[in-house]
Amino acid sequence: MLKLLAHILLLCVLIFINGCTKGPSPPKEPEDELSSFALEPGLTIQLVAAEPLVQDPVVITFDEDNRLWVVEMRGFMPDVDGTGEQNRIGRISVLEDDDGDGRMDRSTVYMDSLILPRALAIVKGGALVAENQALWLTEDTDHDLKADKKTLIDPDYAGSAFPEHAGNGLLRGTDNWYYNAKSKFRYRLNKNKWERDTTEFRGQWGISHDDEGRLYYNYNWSQLHADLVPPNNIGRNSNHTPTTGIDHGLTSDRRVYPARATPAVNRGYIPGTLSDQGKLVEFTAACSPFYYRGSALPNEYYGNVFVCEPAGNLVKRNILMNDGIRIAAHDAHPGNEFLASTDERFRPVFIASGPDGGLYLADMYRGLIQHGAYVTPYLREQTLSRNLEKPVNFGRIWRIVPKNWKHEVLPKLSQKSSQELISLLSNGNGWYRDVAQRLLVERGDTSGTSTLEKLVHSDANTLARYHALYILKGLSVLDPDLLLSLLGDRDELIRIHSLRLLEPFAVRSNAVATRLSERIAVMVNGSEKEVLQVALTAGVLPPLTRLSLLTKIIDNYDTSAFIRDAVLSSLEHEEFSFLTALDKSSSWKNSTPSHEIFLEQLTTCIVKNRKSDELSRILARLNVRRDKFGWKEQTILTGLSIQGPIEGSSPVKLLSAPAIFTQNQASIDSSKLVTLASMFEWPGHEVTMPDSAMLSKKIVVDQKQFALGRQHYLTNCAGCHGSDGAGLKRFAPPLSTSEWVTGNEKRLTLIILHGLEGPINVAGKQYGIPDILPVMPSLAKMDDDAISAIMNYVRNAWGNHAGVISPNLVGKTRHTSQGKVQPWTPEALNAFLNKPN
Hints:
Structural class: alpha+beta
């Protein structure tokens, strides 16, 4: 009966949606597709290449001689079941414009017989290529644009057999590493050997960088994220899990505005996915975020980030706003997209720029873009009934430029001397700066060292000086004296990156570390952005200098979650000494929410460090009378108890029984004493798992997730709800004993995902303006794991006891509540939950 009702519902949805369309969407000729586009005024879109010259393009990039390389995933979804997907029909082609009119005339197959190729990077003598889950160095040794040598670099590059969840990107960062999306690995050529390094996990499909080297990426449900700190820096302390800086969501706005009905989306049957007109409401396949650094588009486009939405047949333009460390983004034209098409087969999946400064789009041009492993019955019906399955192996590449733009003959950079390449570092087109840097590093020509050093010290534009620093780094000729002299430079970007580049020198040389210590102190008085880098670099300084510097920083910036994480990143194994120093500071006599957060984070690190002498002293501190048990003791106690016991972790051995376990401790909650006792053992004390801990483990499943939820809570929620969940006056109501927290798990999930607008009744008390802020913001930019960790923490802390919320429930709720773009009111939320399914 249920299956019959589901089938009837599906048919009703299909009938409704088909009423919004004209049935099948047959393929158009490129010229006809061209007429389907709606583009921002003042711009035009031009055809660069089309089938049969190019088929199923998924990645595009220009080489130093203006040739366009294309990754063609020709084996992707030959039919609705993906039959034959593993056939070796993928290829990489090189397109050339023979007559200089801006349209490609010729294609040379660089490699073929590939299984689902997915990433490409031009390197000296050939290209890095990712296919069949592996990463290869391919070489063209006889210069005929055809690979004749293939060397395995990493057999596990992709990490997954499913295209939606496999590594991709191969973006050469300004630091000369190659970064990837849907991956925790980066790669570089070091002394003629390719090496792999672990880095932070990033994104899903596509990755780019800005003028300062910050990385941008996204997820299919969240269109734009970025790293606000350098890679592999803020997570250097093994005792601390940072919750800021990396994978920072830049916008919670997920709305899209298609130019046509878009019924063929995988979850189109879910209410809210499509509008009343049958149009996609919010991102469902966001990919290839591209930070535009080109020169062809008008100045106002420089620094914008463009995001593809192939399911909605559109490209969104985001305008970035920089506020020191923080970056935020907003839609350039809410209600209208940068580019949208009425052709259902327009599938933009990759964005790039090139030597002419134009914006290039890879259009896979097909009816079905969902991988077979995830095709819903609804989408299968849509695809087959509307003839979207075939044909395949089409593809177009488009260029967006201003109207009346003229294509010019461009120089071949491979023929330029090193001095000529250095001059290109001042070019207004970021493509030239990037390619010039790559070529200079790959050539290994150090004859231009003095020119690069003069450039760094010159009055040239900041970006030229910045690239010159990383070329010197890549050539292994960077002089620490040069970097030390730049710490007082006029440009903040140069000061910050000089600090960053000095770190390995300071690790290897005590003399450099000492000189750095002398010069870095004045930088504490700089901007928050500069202080952030000082905090990160402090980890390489001598211990006394490091502790003094970080104490001054945290005194002035304890309210910044970014700087708290940066300070902790530089304190590995010295957290106890730092806590002792703070305890003596007059600035830390009084309790503030940010003081409590940082002190608890320090205590957490001390627990994870597992040094028995430090923990003995911490426990001894708690052995005080009730009237002496102040905010610091209470915070330290919370930091201790929240961490354990953890399954699989042995108790910390103490030499003797701490007094708090042998004396009457009326000031400490008995359940917390039991929990603490289970974390330590001493002569005569046998550790058993306490009932409270067992209960916690049963409910929250994993104590590590519970502790991680606490860390996310401190970063994202404690500023309004308090570190103890009791709420803060003028900010937010309490979470402890709140029925909104411990009640309906879907209701809490919806609040976290979309936000909540007051007034609200909590435990019989009405909260509204001015008692609390008018709106709780959405946390939808966070991933499902982080959101579930927060909820499982708040549902089982402060005396709350409630069931587990899994990441799967968060993900499902995220999808089933698509289309909700404003915060809930309590009345609207309850009405939504009470609607019959």
